[in-house]
């Protein structure tokens, strides 16, 4: 259920903090496969069965996001930094949406800083925009 939720409801219900979910559009062009959401290109997992232009929900768990050490990746603005012991939770603004990133240790960032996100497409989840069913 946690690693491969069958639908959007389960994906958002299982896990704490809950899965980050963005509404977007699947794109396939020139060998690239991604979801266009909040002005960014989010990589599609290899098993995702989508068609170009399909409305989807793109999900990524807070622990599957990371700060990019190279400054490459999806830009986000830090809203809140919350140390919780061995981990730190970052509340991030991407476009009009907020997302949570959970990392081990401390983050050398503060509110209003711009950071870049790295994520492995294999850890992303894609659900149908209408039914919420897992796509692949």
Description:
The chain is mainly beta and 136 residues long. It has a single domain, classed as OB fold (Dihydrolipoamide Acetyltransferase, E2P). Helix content is 4%, strand content 48%. The chain contains one helix and ten strands, in the order H-E-E-E-E-E-E-E-E-E-E. It has one helix spanning 8-13; strands spanning 20-29, 32-37, 40-43, 55-60, 65-67, 74-83, 87-94, 97-104, 114-119, 125-128. The strands form two sheets. A five-stranded antiparallel β-sheet has the order 3-2-1-4-10. A five-stranded antiparallel β-sheet has the order 5-9-6-7-8, with no helix packed on it. The longest helix has 6 residues, at 8-13. It is globular and about 40 Å long. The two termini are 14 Å apart. The model has no long low-confidence stretch (mean pLDDT 96).
Summarize the structure.
By secondary structure, the protein is mostly beta strands.
Instruction: Report the CATH C-level class.
Output: Mainly Beta
CATH superfamily: Nucleic acid-binding proteins
Strand content: over 45%
Strand pairing plus helix content: what structural class? mainly beta
Biggest β-sheet: strands ordered side by side in the sheet: 3-2-1-4-10
Distance between the termini: 14 Å
* Tally of individual helices: 1
Taken from the alpha-carbon principal axes, the silhouette is: globular
Low-confidence stretches: none
Question: Into which percent range does the helicity of residues fall?
Answer: under 10%
Instruction: Compute the number of structural domains.
Output: 1
